[in-house]
Every structure is written in C-alpha cells, then in structure tokens.
Amino acid sequence: MSLILFKNARLLDPSQSLDQIGDLTIEDGVILSIEPASSSNASSSNTASASGKTIENIVDCTGLALMPGLIDMQVYTGEPGDEHRETLATASLAAAQGGVTTMIVMPNTRPVIDDAALVDFISRRARDTAVVRIHPMAAITKGCDSDQLTEFGLLMEAGAVAFSNGDKAVMNALTMRRAMSYAANFEALIVHHPMDEDLARAGVMHEGELSMRLGLSGIPAAAETVILDRDLRLVELTGARYHLSQISCSDSVSALRLARSRGLQVTSAVSANHLMLNENDVENYRSFAKLNPPLRGETDRMALVDGLADGTIDVVVSGHNPQDADAKRQPFDQAAYGSIGIETLLTSLITLHHAEQLDLLNLLATVTQRPAEILGLNSGTLQPGRPADLALVDLGLPWVVDADFLASKSKNAALDGRRVQGAVIASYVGGKCIFAREDID
Questions:
Q1: What would the DSSP string read from start to end of 321-349?
Q2: How far is Cα 266 from Cα 242, in angstroms, rounded to an integer?
Q3: Which CATH number fits domain 70-375: 3.20.20.140, 3.20.20.150, 3.90.1150.10, 3.20.20.70?
Q4: Which of 15, 83, 330, 396 has its CA 20 to 30 A from that of 259?
Q5: pTM for this model (two decimals)
Q6: Strand order in 133-136's β-sheet?
Q7: What pLDDT, in 10s, does the model give residues 285-344?
Q8: Which homologous superfamily does the CATH classification assign to the domain defined by 3-66+387-397+418-436?
C-alpha cells in the first residue's frame, strides 16, 4: 500500500492531548507519523523517501478535524436470531457513517452469546460481513437469566472482551459476588446494567410528575441506585474490575464520585441520548424515546453532563438498540425499549460541546481513549504505530436528524427531528476508506 497523507487537518487526539493543525501519514494501515503544519511538508517528504515509497494519495483536510475512530462500548444487534432488526453488516454501515470504527456488541442475542463457539461465530461473521472492527461481550450467566456462571476463561480465549448480561441485571447478590470473584481471577471486566427488575417491572418511563400527568407507570431512580449501591459493596469485597453499562440519574453520579474517591476499580458510561434528551421528550407518548434506563428529569440530565465534565463518567455509548416498526409503533406502555444511535453518537458529543461549552478533547476521550483503556484495545489514538482507524469530521456542519435517511436497518431514533451540529465526512479502518460523505480527494 502506498503512503496516504492527510494534509492540513485539525488533529484531535485526547491520548496525546493533541489539538493542532498538521498532517498525518499512514502506511500499510498503520499510522506512520503526525507532524505540525509548520514542518509537515519537509517531514512527510523525508518519511516517504526513507520508506522507498512516494505519497500517491493526498487528502486535503483543510477546515476539517481528523480524530481517532470512535469505539462504541454498547451496541445491540439482531444477529444472530433477529436479523430483521439489525445485522452485523448493517450496524457496521451505520457505525461507519457515524465515525465509529470499533463496535462492542452485547451478548443478549438469540441464542445468547454464552459459549466459546458463539463468540467465535460473532468474530468470524464480523470479519466476513462488517466494515468496522467488532468485538463481542459474552454473557455473565447462562442465557443471561440464570444463576449459572459462564466459562469466563474459555470465553476470553475465544475473543470476549468483557462480560455482561446486556440490558438485564444479575438480580441474585450471591451470583453477582461469585461472578465478580471469578472475574477477578482472570482480570476480566464485568459490565453491568444497574436496574432492579422488581422495582422497574411495572414502570415504562421515569417516575415523577410527568408520568402521573401522562397516566403512565413510573420507574424510580432508586431502581438504578439500589443495584448500583449493592454492586459497589461487592466490588469492594471482591476487588473485581467493574463497569456500569449506563447510568441515568444524579444519585448514581454522586455514588460513583464517592466510590472513586475510595479507590474502587469502577468505571461508568452514559448514553448520548441521555445527555441530549430528558423525560419531556416522552410527551405525546413518543415511543421512540422509550429507553432502558428511562430518560430522567432535566436535573438528572445536567448531573450527567457535570459528571462527564469532571471525569466521574468515563465513557459515552450510543446504546444502539434497533427495534422494528411493529415493536415501536405501539401504545407507549406496550412499545419495545430502545433507540438506534450509533450514527449520531459523535454528532451528539459535538453538539454538546457547542451547546454546553464542554471541552472537546475530554468529550472525545470518552469515545476513544477511555474505552480503549478499559477494554485493552490497541485503537482509539493517533499515536504512530497504531492502527489507522480514523474519522474525518466537519465540526461545524449543522443538520437535522432524519431517521429515514440513517443507515441502520431499523429507524427508531430517539433523536429523530433534532437539530444537531457536526458531521462525519469520511471514516477509515486500517487506512481503508469505508465511508465517504462526498469526494474529498
């Protein structure tokens, strides 16, 4: 492969605290060098000469930002079992259009990813059909709903990057303690959805004044914090690595701050939808905004934004959960939970940067550097020698989200109709362009 030069880009890389105009050169799918604009012409020429190759492809990035491709730590697909909702192939196309070059897929498919053969199936299927990198999580317990633990060691050998029951909590405290102790022996990561099924079962949205006015049963914030408080005690008891797949309320942010101050190995994520929306988006019984965990009040949303700004929250995920029209276009209490979002993940962060005056590098770290560190991946950075997984982005381009034009197979976008800012112009995996909004050569 010849050298490819990305010229005059605004280089953004949280792992190097990098925000400058310069050039980036890749060779054979790997980042070769990054140079500031003042010396890039001479350095690029020297690098090309030293390698015995000439730069044949120059991408003019004037006015655009070049950043590491995003890592989305929570993506639900329908494959295997519900391919009518989403396949690995269609999810990867949506990811590419959103600047996501690595997807972590959740295990609660049909069948559940709870043995090594299924982990291997996902990995092979992704290599054959997807345009982005895909890593599977495996289930904590058999079928995601039993008290029998899966074989963590064998699943890790097969390629599982973490263990989760997807959008189901492990309700039995003894089972969770055993899972954490077992995981600690392998230095494995437990990724948990903190939602007490008994408290949440009767509800369909956030419990509060709005749910009363709409006549809908509510899910209290305590349904989340009850499980969170229990799990933090178990982390202290077992020493396990523990990650909260999504939090949604101010009390959870406060509990995490306290846990981190005590030195617990706890990390957490929030979905982009929970940063952009609140319970008012459920008005008019809008089922596209029916999420798990539910959208909370504006006070909770602002607490999540503050937690993101001060580093209490480590990761932002899309929570991409495709549902077909028959499942979503139902009376609100009967509609399925979930929203697509992988294509709007980066756009949501850029919009928050502009609207909330949040530091751009810190925001980008939550979808590049931090997920890579938590999962032990080699991507999420522009450092030389690392894979050339890149996103070329127009940070200022305004647009309106239209679910009908998103690449996902399902169209249940909670952000449908929202005005946002920032758009992906092109995405690259291993130096290969997998999506281009327009001809940029």
A1: ----HHHHSS-TTTSPP-BB-TTTHHHHH
A2: 5
A3: 3.20.20.140
A4: 15
A5: 0.95
A6: 70-75, 100-105, 133-136
A7: 999 999 999 999 999 999 999 999 999 999 999 999 999 999 999 999 999 999 999 999
A8: Urease, subunit C, domain 1 (2.30.40.10)
